[in-house]
Amino acid sequence: ILMSLQLLEDKRVGVLNDEQEQLSNSIKENADRLLGITGELLNMTQVEAGKLQMMPKITKPIELIEYAIKANQVQADKFGIQIEVEYPEEKMPKLFVDSEKIAWVLTNLLSNAIRYSKENGRVVIGAKHDGDFVEMYVQDFGKGIDPRYHQSIFDRYFRVPGTKVQGSGLGLSISKDFVEAHGGTLTVQSELGKGSRFVIRLKA
């Protein structure tokens, strides 16, 4: 599907009119969504089968944050969301983690924050040093999550009742599995009407 779209968008083949371009963009968004769901299902299968392969390496927290921002910048621009970075000037400890998996978690959290924010709003992604640990966090200023669901949102396929944002209900569950596989924790702090803050805590 994506290769066919690339051919359609190639100006050497011909220029699309406005209606065709909108249709092309819609198809691409749906194809990307299907790829995302497929990836989540594959990750979940690995976790459930106990075959989660870890390839840890020394990684700077800022590299993980920058990856997540780059992966979500187009989505943020589409909704006019400003991504703010909070990162201490003092030297941050490095992490010994599977950078692809932790980057996936941050990317998922930032994507959620953008999708649950009001247009032309802002989200925050950052990190801080806390003793022997590094905390990386993503915060939005959307509608927040009812305290009744603070634990349930990490369950497979769970979606907060009444939510209108599309999703598979797998992202947070897989994110929690990935973080806990590193001996860390993934938690949420949220208040209705004020937004949500997801925190990854890992040993430095």
Description:
The structure is a single chain. With 204 residues, the protein is an alpha+beta fold. Helix content is 41%, strand content 22%. The chain is built from five helices and seven strands, in the order ααβαββαββαββ. Helix 3 (61-78) packs parallel to helix 4 and helix 4 runs antiparallel to helix 5. The radius of gyration is 18 Å and the shape is globular. It is found in: Cell membrane. One of its GO terms (molecular function) is ATP binding. One of its GO terms (cellular component) is plasma membrane.
Q: Sum up the overall morphology in one term.
A: globular
Query: At CATH's second level, what is the architecture of the largest domain?
Result: 2-Layer Sandwich
Rounded to the nearest angstrom, the radius of gyration is 18 Å
Tally of individual helices: 5
- Total beta strand runs: 7
Total tally of structural domains: 2
Give the strand order of the largest sheet, numbering strands 1, 2, ... along the chain: 2-4-5-7-6
Please outline the major beta sheet: 5 strands, mixed
CATH topology grouping of the largest domain = Heat Shock Protein 90
Helix content: 40-55%
* Percent of residues in beta strands: 15-25%
Q: What is the chain-wise order of helices and strands?
A: HHEHEEHEEHEE
Mean pLDDT: 84
Q: Mind telling me the CATH class of the largest domain? A: Alpha Beta
N-end to C-end Cα span: 42 Å
Subcellular location: Cell membrane
GO molecular function: ATP binding; phosphorelay sensor kinase activity
Catalytic activity: ATP + protein L-histidine = ADP + protein N-phospho-L-histidine
Protein name: histidine kinase
